[in-house]
Amino acid sequence: MAEHWFVSGANRGLGLEFVRQLCARGDRVSAGVRNECAARALNAQLAPQHAAARALIFDMRDEAGIAAAADAIEAPIDVLVANAGVAGPPNQSALDLDFAAALDVFSINALGPLRLVKALAGVLGGANPRIVFISSQLGATTGLKPSSMVYCASKAALNKFTQCVAAELQPKRITVVALHPGWVKTDMGGPEAPLHAGDSVAGMIATIDGLTLECTGSFLDYRGREMEW
């Protein structure tokens, strides 16, 4: 049965691939993009058969803009995919850190998904409502990459938010998980990444399709395998 998905960061990379694959199989997509230019880019990259996608403009930092986009959505939404993220400043050394840039990373990567949940939790519905936070294995406390300290910490925060949101929304029977998409060939992942976006997203969609309330609060990779926190 076709579902209604909301995907943020939808004009490039993993977000765009989500839109392509979901529309190709007959789902409807509300596609969050940052500005008019990104909306045009999304529409230009989608073939006519992907007309089931509708671009909604907002910035992940902007609570009011996200709320306005939510008001424009035809409810209900079956799946919310909070996907947009940034790598952060090139220099993430503790001894020479751009604190304003670091705060911006947290606003986008960690708080942005919470803004989406606040705006959209009330319109999640259907038989199996799900919220998916696109995280990273770099957010696991078992890993260490000092050169990406701020990015890693923002994803660790997102992972903790996943656990807390899952507990809060479980009584409403909304499943909440964090997903690691793998190291993917995107603008952020770079050309040396071993995984193509199409393969990552196909795996994530299959994993999301199989989620039930028993999975809530989990940290999974794109193949549905448990990740260490």
Tags for this model:
single chain; 229 residues; alpha/beta; Rossmann fold; 6 helices; 7 strands; 38% helix; globular
What is the rounded distance between the termini? 33 Å
Using DSSP, what is the number of strands? Answer: 7
Ranges where pLDDT stays below 50 over 5 or more residues in a row are none
Give the strand order, joined by hyphens, for the main sheet: 3-2-1-4-5-6-7
Helix content percent band:
25-40%
Strand content: 5-15%
Number of domains: 1
- Gross morphology: globular
Task: Predict the CATH topology.
Answer: Rossmann fold
Helix and strand content put the structural class at alpha/beta
H/E order of the elements? EHEHEHEHEHEHE
Rounded to an integer, what's the Rg over CA atoms? 16 Å
Instruction: Supply the CATH architecture.
Output: 3-Layer(aba) Sandwich
Main beta sheet: strand number and arrangement?
A: 7 strands, parallel
State the helix count.
6
CATH level-4 homologous superfamily: NAD(P)-binding Rossmann-like Domain
Mean pLDDT: 93
